[in-house]
Structure prediction request, 448 residues.
Amino acid sequence: MRTRVLAAPPAGSGLRPIYGTGDPGVIELLRFFRNPIELVAQRRAAFGDITYIKAFGLEFAIPLTADGTESVAMNRQKALAAEPAWGFLIGPFFRRGILLMDFEEHRHHRLILQQAFNNKRLRGYLDEMQPMLRKGVERLPTGENVLVLDELKALTLDLALEIFLGMDLPRAEADRINKAFVDCVNAGMSIIRKDIPGTKWAKGLAGRRVLEEFFRRHLPAKRASDETPDLFSVLCHARSEEGHTFTDEDVVNHMIFVLMAAHDTSTITLTTMAYYLAKHPEWQDRARAQSRSLPREINYDNLGEFTVLDAVMKESLRLNSPVPGLARRALEDTEINGHFVPKGTYVSAVGMVNHHNPDLWTDPERFDPDRFSPERAEDTSHRYAWMPFGGGVHKCIGLYFAQMEIKTIMHNLLLEYEWSVPDGYTWKLDNSTLPVPKDRLPVTLRAI
Ligand code: HEM
Prediction:
């Protein structure tokens, strides 16, 4: 393997350089798409606790230890910013979303946005979501080759439209909005990053226009009416403790970002859980037995009682994190755990670096939800051993919402159905977008 230095540390700084292969970005990206876990292990063996790879014509420094990922997420020296990095990756599609803001501006917006995710609102969302989720789950097709990814994606989108928008859209309109979101999300990982017709990039730009027009059209009615329990209405009326509110543009931008942030992440987690529960029927039985001991229509306080689903969810998020990495850019010369990071370098804290690290987890490739039990508590081996929701000031604002949604859907699925995959089936992930199964996870779904 070739060895190149990212940049020589300033003389007398005592900092060490960051090494990488210096191979062209396209080659590095293809390696990542093929097997990111193997790539991380190889780079750790070759370059130690940090490396850099080229991607999209840029150089990304990637810490390969938990201390390094923590240092990026916590950003104690305030030398790293999210907007210049996420802005490069997804800015044209998700501009002015909260993750594309930094420092004081981010704090200001986060305090208002936080109002939409407090305990009272979460309880309200849970009450709203249950009847439609139950109906949605009951409507699933049964038999062989039911594509879990597609079915769950449609279900979580319907849920998002109801809980986030508070609207009962005609199917064709719901599909149009879904497509716009998917196009925006996929555009971020596009290798061609220009508005050339037919490319993922061009589709993403068109998707953004659809979403902006949609939210602007519906905003006046939301503003004018009393607050209802949907996110759109909550954001129109939200007021931070300091009395700040969102402008119309803010509401549109935050709605587009939050819907994106919520949708595929939850779908991927549910699909990953469905996969492992199909591969490990003993865990499916355990989770179902626990669901049967709880009421069909749960309340917020029941959520803590899903101990089996909780462990399965955490293990699924460890093995297949929906958001592969946190993206940042150095605003000035800085360092990560003693390594020199020059101004302008892109930096990524990549969850799988820790999630598959044998120093932090026993037999990390094995599905073993009991590793999260109080007795074993492997997730406490390091503060960042388990980090699917990120960390620091940008830590996922929807993490309790996500866990509530995921457990409620799984609870309903377990009570209605059993599902299985053929013996020896192993899924293959497409890592060129957010990590989804290439075959969309076909299962045999049987009503019980
Ligand atoms: C299992 C599902 C989810 C996962 C794995 C996940 C993961 C993440 C991660 C890793 C970040 C941090 C990115 C960074 O620092 O660069 C993040 C941020 C964020 N997430 Fe989630 N997320 C999930 C679900 C949700 C849901 C359901 C919502 C909303 C309802 C949401 C809203 C957000 C928002 C608004 C941010 C940006 C926060 C900020 O910049 O202050 N997420 N998420």
